[in-house]
Predict the 3D structure of the following.
Amino acid sequence: MPNYFAINLDRSHERWSALSESALAYKINLTRVAAVDGSLLNPKEWENFDTEKFERCNGRPAKPGEYGCYRSHINALNMFLESGQPTGVIIEDDVVLNSNLSSFCDFLDENYENELLIVRLISHRIPWFQKQTPQVLGHAIGRCWFGPTGSSAAYWITRNGAKHLLKKLNPGYLPVDIMIERSWSHGVDVVQTKPNLLNLPANNVSVIEVHKGNTNYAKFRWYKRFPTYYFRTVELLRRFTYIARSRRINFK
């Protein structure tokens, strides 16, 4: 059974209380990971984050909440590695747990063959999905030919997968959900469930991404976004190439 690591801001007491009660009801061993509140940090203090490259690739400045999410997932992955467990599940405190989660992750634990593997349990979009496995508890596992598919709210990951991922997440220069999805960059095979194994509440708002003060994160003018257009075109081609060449996901 994997360990579950839940990212939670110190000020989000209600979310942690609700998530803890839900985990207890479903007999899930939950470890809290203190989230990084980017709104409390000066951008000059952002650690291992390339703001200039972020602007080139995204066509706008990075938001404090995006840095907070990035650092929070770095901390969660490190905490998972420190646990010594072969696999782990990283979740954010706004996910809605259900009775299928433990059984599904136990299946992954018992049957995975690829040592470099991430299975994303929530996606905002699932375009051009290519199923790789028979359904497990009513959920197929596969890859999307188009993206980004969005969301880093919940994913199962192997130990070696986390080690490889951490190397490529440093420095950060994209929203963390996009960085996690980029198998062609970090070398860890990323697949996802269809339909989503877990869900987010309706009209959900991430408290990590709440911003304070009068700041402007609007996109740059169109003529300043040519590096962004180029980056995204290359990314799409790299995605197509990676999926076309990827081997089929096998389970025992």
